[in-house]
Amino acid sequence: EFTVKALKARQRRKGPAYSMVSHFTGGMLGVMASLRVGFKVMSSCEIIKMYKRAIYDLTGIKCSGDTFNQDPVGLHQPAYMQVTPECPDYSRGSTAFREKLNHGVDGETGWQLVMALKPISILMPLIVEIEMVANVLTVHGGKEVVFVLKALNVLHYNVHAAIVKMQSYGDIIGKERLVVVGCHESLGEHGRQHRIPLGYYSDVVSFCARDIIEKVLDESNARYFRDWEVSPKSSDPGVLQIVARKGMGQGFSSNPHASCNLDGLMPTMTSHGNGRHQPPDWKEGDPVGKSYMYTMEDASKAQNLPKDYIDYMKGFAGKDDDAEKLTQKAIAM
Known about the structure:
Elements (H helix, E strand, L loop, with lengths): L3 H8 L7 E5 L5 H8 L3 E6 L3 H11 L20 E4 L8 H6 L13 H5 L1 H7 L3 E7 L9 H12 L2 E9 L10 E9 L4 H5 L28 E3 L3 E2 L12 E4 L5 E2 L2 E2 L1 E3 L15 E2 L12 E4 L2 H7 L6 H6 L8 H10 L1
Parallel strand pairs: 1-2, 1-3, 3-4, 12-13
Antiparallel strand pairs: 4-6, 5-6, 7-14, 8-9, 9-12, 10-11, 13-14
């Protein structure tokens, strides 16, 4: 059974295992995936106190704090290093609604993508993975990405990069990511031949939001808007099926313009809110106007997180923490 308790046991099992380090650990989504496939966590970096407490409980290893304030003395070369910098300064919604503000490397956190090269150059892992929202390629013409790829080449990594749909790997969510994998030259032919694997699912062959949504919905999540009906671009289960709108564009995550059919994917969740969906019994031709907000529980199921993840994370909130908001942010990562 896939639970946090089972992952804790995997981290503490005896015997050899490949090591991994996590930078920008956040809500531990990457750490949990690594434990699930057999890695053992050697170190992690995160600054939010609630997350640091959870990381220590899960791994048994004290979180090292700020990625950019590490003492290199005593650090060991890991087999695998995971780097997931904050993405708001590269996200599509952020750049659309904040046209007059700085984006990318000039933004509040966008510089982290480029500066992540510093810990990489210190640790020199055998394999490094960098993940960022796909929209990063449209910000500044993708110059930050080009800089990172060239820098990895200078550090003697064979670099592989691709835009991947998380739905193709089993997540029931319309999320795309730029994935960069660097395999150090010391791995020889194994590193040169590596390819980012293809997922099992396609637009046509896929799970959909109806597979995870509760049959009886909480009416406190109901929303009533003057939506108008629109035709979805596709009726395939592996895509977003937007069937109603209250305005053009995405709107804000706490007040989304679009409402989706449950026979398609769930929209991407952010730390500020979720998307909307039609009632479970809605069918094409029915009136629109009533919809429901997706919940944290829906987003957790859509991303295949442990069934006890939400309660587990909330348990590490301090007296000054907003447990609900920080847990939602953790899932959004």
